[in-house]
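User: Can you predict the 3D structure for this chain?
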Amino acid sequence: MDHRMTMLLVPWGLLIGCALVAGGGLYLFFDARYVLQSKLQAIAALVVGLLIIFVTEVSIVAYNGAAFFLAQKEYVSKCYAEGEAAFPAERATKDNAAGAQVFECVRKLGYEWTPDHWKCRTLVIPMNAYCWLPTNPFSRAVTRVQLLLE
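Assistant: Here is the predicted structure, written as structure tokens:
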């Protein structure tokens, strides 16, 4: 699921989750029996509502709230464009000067080459954003979570 789909589903997830939590909470804590008919339904509504809210919040953080991996893709693309511009004749040859340029450019921006992700192992080239992780510990942790959810 990409960020556009997430933005479509997030409001609905929050609305449904909050309604379920409110319904379950009203029944359990205030004995208000508007929609739910039993304590089991109230507990189920509360648990499912909290689960929906949790998943919605994770999707916000993973795709929109912290766009670490999206920025990483843009940096790699920028470095690729610079490498291609610096070595236009190398595109059709076996010489890897453009790839070396991309490699150095991304490293200077604060990323480390790590071919651990499965999408990197399928295409191991410097232009693959899945082969890079930030050197900053916080950014690295957030990017790892985003890659797990990718």
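The chain has a mean pLDDT of 81. The radius of gyration is 23 Å.
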